[in-house]
């Protein structure tokens, strides 16, 4: 199966415009970007996709070997870039996908023009003087509870996560797929995500990078965003008023504004 | 009627007592309201009791997510909150509430995000249900599920080991003879099929090649398959003639408690200075195809009686020589009786593949692939194919 259907790739905006690829984080799918991505369709070729196991991707393409590290996900991003023959890519990655984007950029920097990292964290565990936000036992507990309970349970319950009938903003298809992930895939994705350590990748990023940091983010605290900014040469950070881990959902306008200034300015 | 009056008094008493405040505070589930960002603005008495905190601690200072375990917080931030934003509601999410003393309360949480007139998020209303017993039960179910998965895996491993004792994964090499074989089981991988083949040496220049099919599948069929294989190996030592081996095998099968029958195509090969002689005997089995160098393939041998059914069956023998370039294909009925709807794979397709040429490995691979593809990749029956050929001279 080709990468376009494997990753459920959706393309919009002018066909000859600069490509802007949006990558969702752990837990959800491309619909995460529905309040933000359309704002860039005027000047960019907007490309959305689901990682294998999420949303409308082809779950049968899930290969535990390939996805045993973030490299497999980065390889998917590059497969996508090659399949659509993209150049000058503006890559927007949320959460773990910010690091997946960094890995892809380091592998083939000539394809990328800009990186936007929304709530990035290269290491969730505290380690020595590094503060990731979580102790080893917290992550162990998360993985335990994911394995024994939450994801298996919530995946089975996903059909029950229904739209609000008084505010039918979401289509039927989205209702069924949003936040759904094959439980066995989700377990491994969680393990790969929360135990990964991509700190040494950051200094090798050469593409201009913007870190979008929420002011109160449990998953990726401000200290972590600052670490990312300091580690990537020449990168800049914007601290949003938005709280939580998903500013593109909670404060889409602020997120769009913060991104626009960066992505719309001419490349140096 | 004092009874009726008492009932009426009790009714009004309950009605007055259960005013909206009581209804809220003493509801049998926890209620709390938060800002769209999650800061608690209100929590009922039930919830406060469950989390072991008073209103002063909770309201205006703590967020719902602060009351969760670290694992739960991540789940909240990556699943719960985004879904609530996107859908306006979430239902039956399993989380653990953390009390100040470190103890936990397993809960199920449903929440709803309400918007103001301008459509902006205004308040999150959360209902929390004690799920202690349910969680315990789920844990037991989960353990049972894991145990079931493990035993299914063990069953598959046993089936594979058993199958490998009946079908050698790699047939032995015979000097001056090309040989290839393949086996493709039908259906679930937990089942052992009834098809088998065997290749073994009887002396320095003598070999036996067998392809057979025991009726049925599973462990019972495997027991009979093992019996047939080992009986033939033992008979080969004392009996030169394939027909005599089949006659003895028939007696053994008739005396065995199982009433399963089987089919066999048995070839005895002898190498001499000029090449190979073959003697074939079959019992109830499709005739092998012999492709002479440069000729179309044709059935080789004569039909014999099904084994394990008749008291005095007849088995004939056909002898010939295999010359350089000749190829002999033995197969089970899973090949010719492969089905697509009402249509059978049949002899003509089999012969077409064998005619197409190639050495034993190529013919075996092509035939199995064609039969499997004919059945849309889901063969209904086991398929066993074995081919031998004398390498072309020079």
UniProtKB/TrEMBL annotation, chain A:
GO terms for molecular function: catalytic activity. Transmembrane segments: none annotated. InterPro entries: AB_hydrolase_1, AB_hydrolase_fold. Residues 20-258 form the AB hydrolase-1 domain. Gene3D superfamilies: alpha/beta hydrolase. Pfam families: Abhydrolase_6. Belongs to the AB hydrolase superfamily. This is Sigma-B regulation protein RsbQ. It comes from Nocardioides szechwanensis.
From TrEMBL, chain B:
The keyword Hydrolase applies. GO terms for molecular function: phosphatase activity. Keywords: Hydrolase. Pfam families: PAS_9, SpoIIE. CDD domains: PAS (cd00130). Residues 91-143 form the PAC domain. InterPro entries: Bact_Sigma-Reg, PAS, PAS-assoc_C, PAS-like_dom_sf, PPM-type-like_dom_sf, PPM-type_phosphatase-like_dom. It comes from the Bacteria. PANTHER family: STAGE II SPORULATION PROTEIN E, STAGE II SPORULATION PROTEIN E-RELATED. This is Sigma-B regulation protein RsbU (Phosphoserine phosphatase).
